[in-house]
Write a structure and sequence with these properties.
heterodimer, A: alpha/beta, Rossmann fold, six-stranded mixed beta sheet, 7 helices, B: 199 residues, Arc Repressor Mutant, subunit A, 2 domains, 61% helix, 6% strand
Chain lengths: 244, 199
């Protein structure tokens, strides 16, 4: 696993907003990497820097210290145009809200990133349809977002995030407003994308959601305090409460 | 009394041998709670004494157990009532935190983080079981869900403990040396409210 280039590598990243005495350090000395096929969850309380870190990982914000590499490319040395292209072709975003364009059908929403990248509309539409079918969402393709449930919207958003072979998925509280079972369907889909070779970062404060990850990174006050991985050596978890 | 009632629930499906009950119980619960076969026979003997089960001795001396009407009623009573929460289990973690907060040497934040990471790892393992095995086994999935919710609750409680500790450790605000808008406002306001004794 160490021999492959990580899809995402965050090296000693710091982000400070403002300057001088009024500056605020949102992130300090954060390092981790995500390999192809890996799902990494980032957990921490409100204000711990989770969303700032995700924005930086996705090239939506710049670091003030350190480096972010996506497929080996240092985002810090790319000009605006190259960065925009990398975001368009390599990175998919899933947010809690405002995911889909209301005037487009599910299929058109999924096809949009391909069209923005220059694909012919018919080609983009057929790729979008194929992907929705692959993800078990074929019956939703002609529906508009307001005709979809919250869980369906998020699953279409995940389809839009991975369309066109994008290999890095960044999700910020993607199940925030969903009930437990619907949220699980969304995270199962995210997990499946990783099992098929995508790399993903999932920001959440929900431990049951984070538990789908291969690794969990804990942030506190902008710093990484710990990280955990599922232990392959244990075939049975310890169970609270004995029987009487 | 969950072993007793679990055995009654298994016998409701038909007569079984003691060892078969042990195996069936473990299979149904994903081997999460291994049963000692001695515990099974002791429980069955008490069930016989209380008239909840009856045993037929077969030619080879093996006993096969079946549910009696009284056993069925006991099972109905179990299903129709809630599980008692009156007995608070001894919570080692809560006790550990109490003493870590009081301790001069323990790092309570480290205690919390170690526990959070360990519980998180356990949740990851449970989730892996949920995604790997027995996806079609509803009873098994429900068991795992229950354990996942317990673990999640523990992590949320630890988060809250940490936030409360941070609040308690924050230094009390002191009066700034220069006048500030809030101080000027305070100067215009009437005397601050103080707690009065009841007349």
């Amino acid at each position: 696993m160490t021999s492959t280039t990580p899809t995402l590598e965050v090296r000693g990243v710091g982000r400070t907003y403002g300057s001088g005495r009024t500056s605020v350090a949102a992130l300090a000395d954060v390092s981790f990497s995500v390999q192809p096929g890996e799902l990494v969850a980032i957990m921490g309380p409100s204000g711990s820097g989770k969303s700032s870190l995700l924005a930086i990982a996705g090239g939506l914000d710049r670091v003030t210290e350190g480096q972010v590499l996506v497929n080996g490319s240092d985002l810090g040395v790319l000009d605006a145009r190259a960065l925009a292209r990398l975001r368009r072709r390599t990175i998919g975003y899933v947010f809690q809200e405002l995911n889909l364009l209301g005037t487009l059908t599910a299929e058109e929403n999924v096809a949009l990133p391909l069209e923005l990248d220059g694909a012919r509309p018919t080609m983009a539409a057929s790729q979008a349809r194929a992907l929705l079918g692959e993800l078990g969402l074929a019956e939703l393709e002609d529906r508009f977002p307001d005709e979809l449930s919250g869980g369906e919207q998020q699953r279409v958003a995940i389809a839009r995030a991975v369309v066109g072979q994008r290999r890095l998925l960044l999700a910020d509280e993607p199940t925030g407003a969903l009930d437990s079972l619907t949220g699980e369907a969304v995270v199962r889909l995210l997990r499946r994308q990783c099992d098929n070779g995508c790399a993903a970062v999932l920001v959440t404060h929900d431990a049951r959601l984070a538990a789908w990850a291969d690794r969990v990174v804990f942030l506190r006050d902008g710093r990484m305090v710990d990280q955990t991985a599922a232990n392959d050596d244990l075939d049975r978890p310890s169970v609270p409460g004995g029987l009487t | 009394m969950s072993v007793r009632h679990s055995l009654l629930a298994l016998l409701e499906q038909g007569p079984m041998y003691g060892y078969g009950l042990k195996s069936e119980f473990e299979a149904a619960t994903g081997r999460m709670w291994p049963l000692n076969v001695g515990q099974v026979y002791t429980t069955l003997a008490r069930g016989e004494r209380d008239g909840l089960v009856e045993a037929d001795v077969e030619a080879d001396g093996q006993k096969i157990y079946r549910l009696t009407d009284a056993g069925r009623q006991e099972l109905d009573r179990w299903f129709s009532g809630p599980v008692s929460r009156d007995v608070v289990p001894r919570q080692e973690l809560a006790i550990k935190l109490i003493f870590a907060v009081r301790s001069q040497t323990a790092d309570v934040h480290a205690v919390i983080q170690h526990q959070r990471a360990a519980t998180m790892r356990s949740l990851q393992e449970l989730t892996r079981l949920k995604s790997d095995e027995g996806a079609d086994d509803l009873a098994w999935t429900l068991t795992l869900d229950g354990l996942l919710f317990q673990g999640e609750a523990e992590i949320r409680w630890l988060d809250l403990c940490e936030a409360r500790l941070a609040g308690a450790a924050a230094p009390a605000p002191t009066a700034p040396s220069l006048p500030t808008p809030s101080r000027r406002r305070a100067a215009r306001d009437p005397a601050p409210l103080t707690r009065r004794s009841r007349p």
